[in-house]
Amino acid sequence: MNRQQLIEQIRTKKSFLCVGLDTDIKKMPPHLLSDKDPIFTFNKNIIDATAPYCVAYKPNLAFYEAFGLKGIDAFERTIDYLKKNYPNHFIIADAKRGDIGNTSAMYAKTFFEEYDVDALTIAPYMGEDSVKPFLGYDGKWVVLLALTSNKGSHDFQLTEDSNGERLFEKVLRKSQVWGNADNMMYVVGATQGEMFKDVRKHVPNHFLLVPGVGAQGGSLQEVCKYGMTKDCGLLVNSSRGIIYASNGEDYAEVAASKAKELQAEMAIELEKLADE
Predict the structure, then answer these.
(1) How far apart are CA 48 and CA 244, in angstroms?
(2) End-to-end CA distance of the chain, in Å?
(3) Alpha helices, DSSP H, located in 88-219
(4) 56 close to 18: Cβ distance less than 8 angstroms
(5) C or N: which end of the chain has fewer Cβ atoms within 10 Å?
(6) SS percent in the chain: helix, strand, coil, step 5
(7) Backbone phi, then psi, for 55, in 5-degree steps?
(8) Annotated catalytic sites, by residue?
(9) pLDDT, tens digit, 9 for 90 and up, residues 182-209
(10) 132 vs 29, 104, 122, 143, CA distance in Å?
(11) With 80 as the cut, is the pLDDT of residue 77 above it?
(12) pLDDT higher at 163 or 62
């Protein structure tokens, strides 16, 4: 999916919601555990319930790889189900890959050829040759970690060099030589608040993937105030706050309700943008 197609989906659905499929058997409704493939069944029902309210899905590979071949099979079935039934939804594989060039080339082949997802999260800290192999695919996106939402993000990402440039700023500045606003996004956590202003000084037009709204306490309104662009420029992810909103047999219906609530808030923010 290219940039314009993504923007059109956001405008059409009045949503920039990404639903994170961090599918954890321990948090899954107990009645699903007897299912032949509980992970896929859970995902399928969540997807069917939330698809009207979101534009993207983000399965986190760790939650699938932890179960070996069965988990990978559930991941593959989930991707296949999305592509066949919801082809206009943007798919982000949250795998946080990044290694020397020949290894990154194999990771790129895995996710962009074998799984054929739209985007992949990448750790940039091994430098240009570890990122470039992912940028050689038309219509595919690299999502670089920039300023994340976890507590430990401040350990390194906010450290300054002798010129006062913080590490996340160096990532934003340097990586624009490798890619552009048509094939590169950045992860910026919703919990960073006004720091979005500093991010936008460096990348005024790039899309940002924003985790941390909901269970982690990030504010959608604050994210939009400091991070939204004329094209929206945001994919705001919610995982636990949607998919685990209920642990009963009504889990899909409750997930739909939570997704609809967020979509309604997003529609208001997009309306503000249209009025400017």
Answers:
(1) 15
(2) 27
(3) 101-108, 128-131, 167-175, 195-202
(4) yes
(5) C
(6) 50, 15, 30
(7) -115, -5
(8) 96
(9) 999 999 998 877 889 999 999 999 999 9
(10) 41, 8, 11, 12
(11) yes
(12) 62
Residue 114 carries which DSSP code?
A: I
Residue 194 CB-density burial (10 A; 0-12 exposed, 13-18 middle, 19+ buried): exposed
Does residue 97 sit in helix, strand or coil?
Answer: strand
The amino acid that residue 175 corresponds to is S
Residue that the structure tokens 């940028």 belong to: 135
Which residue, 40, 90, 95, is CA-closest to 65? 95
Question: Is 262 within 8 Å of 238 (Cβ atoms)?
Answer: yes
Which residue reads 């504010």 in tokens? 219
Question: pTM score > 0.70 for this model?
Answer: yes
What is the amino acid identity at position 8? E
Q: CA angle, corner 46, sides to 187 and 139, nearest 5? A: 45
- Rounded Cα distance between 117 and 122, Å, is 14
Residue 74, Cβ neighbours under 10 Å: how many? 24
104 and 134 in contact (C-beta within 8 Å)?
yes
Nearest of 67, 6, 14 to residue 37 by alpha carbon: 67
Compute CA 137 distance to the chain's CA centroid, rounded to the nearest angstrom. Answer: 19
How many Å apart are CA 192 and CA 20, to the nearest integer?
19
Res. 273 pLDDT band, cuts 50 70 90: confident
Residue listed under structure tokens 């047999």: 249
CA nearest neighbour of 198 among 173, 218, 215, 217 = 173
131: which 2 tokens?
Answer: 């990122």
255 three-class SS: helix
Q: Which of 245, 235, 177 is nearest to 211 (CA)?
A: 235
Q: Which residues in 148-245 belong to E strands, given as ranges? A: 184-188, 208-210, 234-238
